[in-house]
Design goal:
Mean pLDDT of chain A: 95
Largest interface: A-B, 96 and 103 residues
Number of strands of chain B: 20
Radius of gyration of chain B: 23 Å
Oligomer: heterodimer
Strand content of chain A: 15-25%
Number of helices of chain A: 10
Bound molecules: flavin-adenine dinucleotide
Shape of chain A: globular
Structural class of chain A: alpha+beta
Shape of chain B: globular
Order of helices and strands of chain A: HEEEEHEHHEEHEEEHEEHEHEEEHEH
Radius of gyration of chain A: 21 Å
Largest sheet of chain A: 5 strands, antiparallel
Chain lengths: 366, 589
């Protein structure tokens, strides 16, 4: 494989960005398009990144994989599975085209996240093209590295507004030898209470979702360890399908509504032990609890005031993203405190002074 | 020490987390970490000499390490003479002036007067002898006195101090416990040393959400001690954990013996309260697992006090593992020990701890603590498996078989906790043990891809011969973090310089094989030149731009962590000349 710095596709991206910065032309970055729905409306000339493909290096015993950003997530997971390893943050693909670059830029993590860490926790290094068209390398391919500011992790979840990812190095982990899913009947409040108790004990938890009056718990580890935990927690055995579907938002809970007057899907991040939220009057719609309590999904039945939702969520110490069904020209992500927003603007200007990378995709003024 | 309220939902543990000397001594004796013992007794000696000066967090006293247990520590008599800053620009970019009297007093007076309007009199130190404890951190070869040192007690005072510094254009350096090993807390000669020592309270423990809100001066270990009754602990465990502060841990993104499995500081914190140089207070991160916007929490972690002053940290707590067992394996070659590490991981096992020592390290440790190590082995591996009883049981036989299969000449399983502690004692005492066989040593901190270990050790040996100084290796094998200890004698003219030159070559070697110049100790002043090797000018320029986004006038910890482009340009010729980087055009990833 040619070196990244010589890759004609990378050279072309650099030239494209430099020209855009000179002329003040907005660029809309796109990997596989699986997360086109996420965030605010993307504007500008499209830059297709799906062509930057291929695993650059992977040595299972080093627990590190390095790949070009346009490599399909499915391909990466396939390569890892062949060596009995995985991306432990369990990223949702949300579409066949998902690329590893888009996965990191979107920063979404699946049900395993509370116990194994988020996308950002597994980022070891990146090569990016910044808003000046410069190719820069941060972090590296080793587990521990504190040289320079951690601009690699800063890219995770930045929605492409700080740089174009061209290569990423990620920490990978062995797949647990054994995984068992259990189901128990519970109300949301009971589920949250149980999860708080279990999370404080050394149990091999790897997923915990409450939906439709049932708590689904996944345990992963050595056969003996899982068996001991199953005996402790109890519940009916279930297959892997629940969590596979849940991760991909393929569970009926997420299906488009029939009859309601809105198709909103809210993703609400709160302290894990927070009581069930009440954010709207009347028919509260449907709720699910994920991440062992720390993530709440909400399908309102009626369109509601976004401001009211956000105020209620802020009061609970959390933040709310209107993942689907929002106004793409409104704010999709939770508003930032004024001081933090000012820091965001300055960080954005430090990496993309002309403001050409995905302007407005995350917040209207970034 | 006072424990957290056992049944607390947001329990407020309003207590003083300042260390209890007896308890620290006891702990240190148990764990035989003489480096820390030495630095603590220094501090307390100082404290008892000058009652009224709260010097916890002051790491340098004029009579430092005694006996032969010295770390990177030149002869104290010579230390002051060494023009440590002569090669390094000060905050203002000028060479330090030698004036010791009137001029200094004249510069001090208005600053002291202004600070006294903000802080109580005891919180502003400016007499030379009061400033002594702050003249260096754990990298004691670099010393200088700040113009003043301040000990604020409230966030408002920190804000006011920073606003003042901003207005007067004074450099300011935050300091936690001063155990840093890269000179990060080296004070600014013309500015303010801001000690967080008085921020030593655990503010609240939240059992149900498994977090603790702590002030930045709280010691790392004090957190785990406070939450132990809840069956919880704070995972990152640097060897300095009885002394180092959580604020310093965040600033350095510190690791420990268990970070392959449990992560670094960045993986174990949830939010920060910080004050930027303009005096503004910000909350970064939040009470949920993630926060909206950019991951400023990651950016702040490891930023070595260059972006903001941390005034509160919310850490994540984990349930204590049910059990931990340790295997000790001896090998005839370093390669076979290295292969064994790879095989364990390939087998799908992530040990809680996985440490390697080479023969000189084994011998030094054995002589010192009699851990019953196999002294003829070329290398030993210590592999700790933790988790539930059943998990650990499942893995022990598997690991033992693998070790034997990789050519281990001997594999021992610690029978009980006493033996487990003895196995670890040798490793934990490796630094002071080396201190016994050499008047001084210099601890390096590179990380490499593990597969490169045999090559790096062989090249290190060659470099060691070339520089005429012995090197002893201890290695966080699981995550590829090497700590070569360079043995030297500061009383022999030129040896300190040789040690530093050899250290620089080892770090450059780490970069060459795809690694990094620092895994956990930070760049500080120590590794600033090697930053020019690891990063290209455009990358350094990007770092400076990010710094300017937080601190446009460059007042926070100036001259540290990121070198100026001019400095790298000057050094560029030198590195090529030395042949350290024969192919600067090659990719450095
Ligand atoms: C014997 C020994 C063993 C060690 N073992 C390890 C180890 O295993 N792993 C490891 O990672 N490190 C280790 N260290 C290094 C050191 O202990 C860590 O870097 C530690 O995190 C420093 O904490 P501190 O409170 O002493 O910080 P200080 O030395 O006081 O400061 C370190 C840096 O942080 C900045 N800083 C401190 N507090 C703040 C704040 N509140 N806000 C902003 N910036 C701040 C300072 O400006 C400075 O740049 C060891 C050191 C010793 C002496």
């Amino acid at each position: 494989m040619v070196r990244t710095m010589d890759d004609p596709a990378v050279v072309a991206i650099r030239e494209r960005v430099a020209a855009a910065a000179a002329s003040g032309t907005a660029l809309r970055l796109r990997g596989g398009g699986s997360k086109d729905f996420l965030g605010r409306r993307a504007v500008g000339e499209p830059v297709e990144l799906g062509g930057l493909r291929g695993v650059v290096s992977y040595e299972p015993t080093e627990l590190v994989i390095t790949a070009r950003a346009g490599t399909p997530l499915a391909e990466i997971e396939q390569v890892l599975a062949e060596s009995g390893q995985m991306l432990a943050f369990e990223p949702p693909r949300l579409g066949a085209g998902a690329t590893i670059g888009g996965t990191i830029a979107a920063g979404l993590s699946g049900p395993r996240r509370p116990w194994y860490g988020a996308a950002r926790d597994h980022v070891l290094g990146t090569r990016i093209v910044n808003g000046r068209g410069e190719l820069l390398a941060f972090g590296g391919q080793v587990m521990k590295n504190v040289a320079g500011y951690d601009l690699s992790r800063l890219m995770a979840g930045a929605m492409g507004t700080l740089g174009i990812l061209v290569e990423v190095s990620l920490k990978v982990l062995p797949r647990p030898a054994e995984t068992v899913t259990l189901v128990q009947e519970a109300s949301a409040a009971e589920a949250i209470e149980r999860l708080a108790r279990w999370s404080g004990q050394p149990l091999p938890l790897s997923g915990a979702v409450h939906v439709d009056g049932r708590l689904h718990v996944r345990l992963s580890g050595t056969p003996g360890g899982v068996a001991a935990a199953v005996a402790k927690i109890g519940g009916e055995g279930d297959g892997d399908q629940f969590f596979d579907a849940w991760r991909e938002l393929d569970h009926p809970f997420f299906a488009p509504t029939d009859g309601g007057d809105t198709d909103q899907l809210w993703r609400i991040s709160v302290p894990p032990a927070a009581a069930p939220l009440e954010v709207a009057r009347g028919d509260g719609g449907q709720w699910a609890v994920d991440w062992g309590g720390a993530l709440r999904w909400w399908r309102p039945r009626e369109a509601c005031s976004e401001q009211a939702v956000r105020a209620a969520v802020s009061a609970a110490g959390g933040h709310a993203t209107l993942l689907r069904g929002g106004d793409p020209d409104g704010e999709v992500f939770h508003p930032l405190a004024p001081g933090i927003l000012a820091l965001h603007r300055r960080v954005k200007a430090a990496l993309d002074p002309a403001g050409v990378l995905n302007p407005g995709r995350m917040y209207s003024d970034l | 020490m006072v424990a957290a309220a056992p049944d607390s939902r947001p329990a407020v543990v309003d207590r003083d987390a300042a260390p209890d000397f007896e308890q620290i001594l006891e702990f240190t004796r148990n764990y035989l970490n003489y480096n820390v013992l030495q630095s603590i007794s220094r501090i307390f000696r100082y404290r008892s000499r000058r009652p009224g000066v709260h010097s916890w967090g002051g790491g340098c006293a004029s009579a430092p390490f005694s006996g032969s247990l010295r770390s990177h520590q030149p002869n104290p008599d010579r230390a002051e003479e060494r023009p440590v800053t002569s090669a390094r620009p000060t905050a203002t970019g000028e060479l330090p002036s030698q004036d010791r009297g009137a001029a200094r007093a004249a510069r001090q007076a208005p600053v002291v007067a202004a600070l006294r309007e903000i802080l109580p009199e005891s919180g502003v130190l400016h007499h030379r002898e009061d400033l002594r404890p702050y003249e260096c951190d754990g990298l004691t070869a670099y010393r200088r006195l700040p113009l003043v040192a301040v000990l604020p007690e409230t966030v408002e005072q920190v804000q006011a101090v920073l606003r003042l510094c901003s207005r007067l254009g004074l450099p300011v350096v935050a300091r936690g416990a001063g155990t840093g090993l890269s000179g990060g807390a080296l004070p600014p000669e013309d500015g303010v040393l801001l000690s967080l020592a008085k921020f030593n309270r655990i503010v609240a423990v939240d059992r149900d959400n498994r977090t603790a809100r702590v002030q930045p001066g709280v010691r790392n270990l004090a957190i785990s001690e406070a939450v132990a009754p809840l069956g919880l602990y704070y995972a990152p465990d640097p060897s300095s954990q009885i002394a180092c502060s959580i604020g310093g841990n965040v600033a350095e993104n510190s690791g420990g013996l268990h970070c392959l499995k449990y992560g670094l500081t960045v993986h174990n914190i949830q939010s920060l309260e910080v004050v930027t140089i303009d005096g503004e207070r910000h909350t970064i991160g939040g009470p949920a697992l993630d926060a909206p916007g950019y991951d400023l929490l990651a950016l702040m972690t490891g930023s070595e006090g260059l972006l903001a002053v941390i005034v509160e940290v919310t850490v994540k707590l984990l349930p204590k593992p049910e059990c931990a067992r340790v295997l000790l394996a001896a090998f005839e070659t370093v390669e076979s020990a290295g292969t064994a590490v790879g095989r364990i991981i390939a087998e799908g096992i992530i040990p809680g701890g996985l440490e390697m020592m080479d023969n000189p390290a084994i011998r030094a440790a054995e002589d010192f603590v009699h851990a019953d190590y196999p002294v003829d082995a070329a290398a030993i591996l210590l592999c700790e498996l933790d988790g539930t009883e059943r998990e650990v049981e499942d893995q022990i036989d598997q690991v033992r078989a693998l070790l034997e299969d990789c050519g281990a000449t001997e594999v021992r399983l610690a029978r009980d906790d006493a033996e487990r502690i003895r196995f670890w004692a040798g490793r934990k005492a490796a630094f002071p043990a080396v201190g016994r066989i050499s008047p001084d040593y210099y601890c390096m901190d590179g990380t490499i891809p593990r597969r490169e270990l045999p090559k790096v050790l062989a090249r290190t040996e060659a470099l060691s011969r070339e520089h005429g100084l012995a090197v002893v290796n201890v290695f966080h094998a699981g995550d590829g973090n090497l700590h070569p200890l360079i043995l030297y004698d500061a009383n022999q003219p030129g040896q300190l310089e040789q040690a530093e030159a050899l250290g620089a070559r080892i770090l450059e070697l780490c970069v060459e094989v795809g690694g990094t110049i620092t895994g956990e100790h930070g760049v500080g002043v120590e590794k600033i030149e090697q930053m020019c090797v690891q990063f290209a000018p455009a990358e350094l320029a990007q770092f400076h731009a990010v710094k300017a986004a937080f601190d446009p006038d460059g007042l926070l910890n100036p001259g540290k962590a990121v070198p100026t482009l001019a400095r790298c340009a000057e050094l560029g010729g030198m590195h090529v000349h030395h042949g350290a980087l024969p192919h600067p055009e090659l990719e450095r990833f």
